[in-house]
Structure formats: C-alpha cells, structure tokens
Amino acid sequence: MKILQTILSCLLITLMSGHLVAQEKTKGIIMELVSGEKIEAAQIQNLRTKAEVQTNRDGSFAIDANINDLLLIKAVGYEQDTVFIYDTSLRRVYLNRMNNVIELSEVVVERMTDSRLAAEIQREKTLGKYSDASQNRGGVRISPSRIFSKEGKQARSNYKLLIAEREKRAVDRKFTENLIKELTPLNGSDLALFKERFRPSYKFIQNSSQETLKVYIMDSYKKFNEKK
Where are the domains of the chain? Predict the structure, then answer.
C-alpha cells in the first residue's frame, strides 16, 4: 500500500511539474525593423501547441511556451517570421514591411530574428556570387561585372556581416550567464568582464559538447582569478 501511495505521489508531482512548465509565459514586444515602431494586433502562434495571442497597443505579448518552441509571427503589411525560444528573457521581435528594402547595418542586423537573418544570408550570398557552374558548356564561368560592381562588393560585405552575427548568436546561446553562474560565483561587473575576456570562438562552440564547455568555463575561471 505504501509503495502504491509513493508511486501515485510521484506521478502527481510529475504531472504538476509538467503543468507548471507548460504554463510558463514567454513575453515579448513586436516592432518594425527599421523604425522601431511598436506593432499592435500582430498575431503570435506557438507552432507546437497551436495557441495564439495578439499584441497589445504597445506591441507587447505573452504566450505559453517552453524552451525549443517555435513561434510564428504575423502582422498585416509585414513579412511573417518565426522566433525560436532558447531562453526565458524578454524578446524583441522585429518585422520587415513587405517590399521594403533593408539597408544593412550592425544595428539592423542585431534586430533580425534568426529566420530573417538566414534569409538575408542566402540573399546576399546569391547577390555577391561572381561565378557559377555552366550547365551547357561545363566548368565555371566568372563574371567580371559581379566582381567589380558596387552591388556585388556591397553584397559580399553584407554577407560577412551577417555570417558574423549568426556566429555571435550561436556562441551567446551556449556561453550563457546562467551556465557561468552555475559553475562559478561570478556576478555583476565581474561576470560581464569574464564573459568578454573568455568568450569562446564560434569554432570551439560548434565542436564542443556541453560538458566540454563546462570544463572550459571552470578552467577559464581559475585563470580569471589568477589574473585578478
């Protein structure tokens, strides 16, 4: 009887825990990409649960979502986009107006969602290409106009900027303050200094497991203390 009660209690706790996790709110603000204007009545849908909400007059929203959920964002007059939930922080989502040309800068690049960033990377990569494989003649054809044109040079410059932003985000998602706090007593200005000084490379992040990253953080913390 006691064993049965224990099993039932465990099941109850598990169900309650799952319910609590499902009820966690992801909050955010939907804004226009270039101007930063808040967008009212934008639709946000959790693609896993199909739950939907709309933004308020100040562009804000709150929706039930778990880590790794994908949100679909739509608004009249704007290109729809998706947002991947990888942490619980307040999200600022920037939508681009339909048929609106984006003038790339570091500020605008940082505002892009991941799916918009991926689309722009592909776009600039295509615009910046100065060679292509010939289907009829074979081999590779070089286009001098693409090499030396202002548009081609700008596209290749934009491509590098976008790739750098994508790599920065990949590092930020794994080398997080929460993970550093789990492994060290760092906080405040010391934490910010540690993150800046011992920020790992994109290549390291791509080739490392979570355990390897933890070892790196602990080793880096020892070096951080020695330098202090």
Answer: 24-100, 104-174, 175-227
189 three-class SS: helix
Instruction: Give the other-Cβ count within 10 Å of 11's Cβ.
Output: 10
Fold of 24-100: Immunoglobulin-like (2.60.40)
Return per-residue pLDDT of the chain as tens, 228 residues.
Answer: 555 455 545 555 554 444 444 457 899 999 999 899 999 999 999 999 999 999 999 999 999 999 889 999 999 999 999 999 988 788 899 999 998 888 889 999 999 999 999 999 999 988 887 545 555 555 544 555 556 577 788 888 999 999 999 999 999 999 999 999 999 999 999 999 999 999 999 999 999 999 999 999 999 999 999 876
Burial class of residue 10 (count of CB atoms within 10 Å of its CB; 0-12, 13-18, 19+): exposed
User: Which of 159, 161, 134, 131 has its CA nearest to residue 146?
Assistant: 131
Claim: this prediction has a pTM higher than 0.70: yes
